Give the backbone structure.
Amino acid sequence: MAASGKFVGRRTVWQWNCRGFKNKKVTMVQYMKTLSKSKLPDVIALQEPFDRAQLPGYVACGSPCECTRKDIKVCTLVKRKTAFLDHSLDISEELDIDHNRIEVVPCIGNWKTGLFVLNVYNPTSKRGLTHNFGALCREAMANAASSRLLICGDFNAPRTQWGYGADSPEGKKLAELMDELGLVLPNEPASHTQIGQGACRDTSPDLSVWSDAGAITWSNTFEDLGSNHRVLCMTMGEDRGKMHGCQKARVMYWDKFREQREREKQEGPIEDIGEWCRELLADVEKATKEIEWPDRRKEPKGGDRPCGSVDDSVPEPSMVDSRLAHFVEAKKSMQRRASQQKLNRKIRKKIAEINREIEAHCVRLCEQE
């Protein structure tokens, strides 16, 4: 069911199964500070936050059943100053899939139709669960009418089509439903969204289902921010050719620099200031390393800004904290080793320890601001 409305502006949606948002909030805040304004998401669809999520610059909305504020399975964050409506679905059939739906209201002169985002969490298979995707998707599409619809979340429906080794009954039903309704899956099967624990392989339970044939770019950030699920990014209304990957960030290893200067320390006054400066710069270069960091693309000059691209209330990204960058680099290095040594428990424990150190350091950074 392809929508006929004009799609001119740009919206960015993140989805992430955070496995508890409370302790990972500060990590996400620091990660978002490394991004340019154009890269900040308009909507963040969280699964398994457990508590009602709160994030600076965003408004939280969730399902009506979360009055206890505990064991919340889905929560959607919308950027402040973004007009949206919180909708509920009227489904007569019994559902065991947690969901929350919002509508991002179109801006005059940018979008001619709205964007519906359906955030879902389907628990893993247990006796008695119906996994009724059909009733949920049909009702969501009927309510969206000619507007775009993005269904994203943790489906827990294994299927070889999206990177699993075998099919499950839920995965087969979901694939047949997508074909029946004309839904598109922009996920890349080789880009797994969940990190396997122990001897388990990496999988892709997190899916992004789109109701239109074009105007969407799906990407895996490969950032887990302390969860075993990665943050996924969907950009609607921007060509793939305009998207940028990671850039290089130069990080100074101060301990290495001090050791180098101590070894080359000369007694007495400096005789040749030019030679001394060249040696100093050479030591700086030896103690500096380039690491991959998210793209900090600048805003295009001139012309009107696309809808949803920039929020003037959000500050420009600051420089990367060197200690945080060291932690991130160490974690990625350990994750590469873990992918090759699945049975090595020491590596998994070390990754968990680094995650705790990253969280503690992010707390200190947030307190300093």
Summary: The longest helix spans residues 345-368. The chain is about 25% helix and 20% strand. Helices lie at 25-32, 133-144, 169-181, 254-263, 273-286, 322-340, 345-368.
